[in-house]
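User: For a benchmark we're assembling, each entry needs the component sequences followed by a predicted structure for the full assembly. Here are entry 17's components. Please fill in the structure.
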Amino acid sequence: GQQLNQSPQSMFIQEGEDVSMNCTSSSIFNTWLWYKQDPGEGPVLLIALYKAGELTSNGRLTAQFGITRKDSFLNISASIPSDVGIYFCAGTYQGAQKLVFGQGTRLTINP
Amino acid sequence: ETGVTQSPTHLIKTRGQQVTLRCSSQSGHNTVSWYQQALGQGPQFIFQYYREEENGRGNFPPRFSGLQFPNYSSELNVNALELDDSALYLCASSLPGPSTDTQYFGPGTRLTVL
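Assistant: Structure for entry 17:
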């Protein structure tokens, strides 16, 4: 089935640093979504992208839908302690009802 | 506006038993999807319900079944539980129309099978 390759798997950064993570697919996706999940909780939607080339911001978060429709990235600027968690990319492709998820990026912030 | 809610929060069962998990969709959302998330992995799609009918299914055996009710709430039933069924079960709801791909998740039900 379809798979999303998310990188990096983990990041250890200092508070205040900027963060960048990305997701790639071998197939074209119609929608790209970015979620954050805290331990024992459900994923919380951060940003939704619907068109190739779309660049969307949500506070300190910025995400883009790649022109080829096979990739997306998420940037976090000026990280703060509450940014700690696991970030997942997810997407949908033609004819599918499901979300396909990446493996997640675990973000750890050193104060 | 109420978000997606799930019950129970935690559940412990033994191998071979049956379990029912419940989900109430976000207000106005008529599509409900269920996912299984094993520890350290991304969620895996089980199935989706739209207008009380199954509308797509992932690679899960028939002992995973579901229902959707007229008020759009949903149940996930798992029969003959196996140890590998231990996971966080997530319900997600979405709006009809062009935004149906945008799914909003509940807090999940943590199932432990002993």
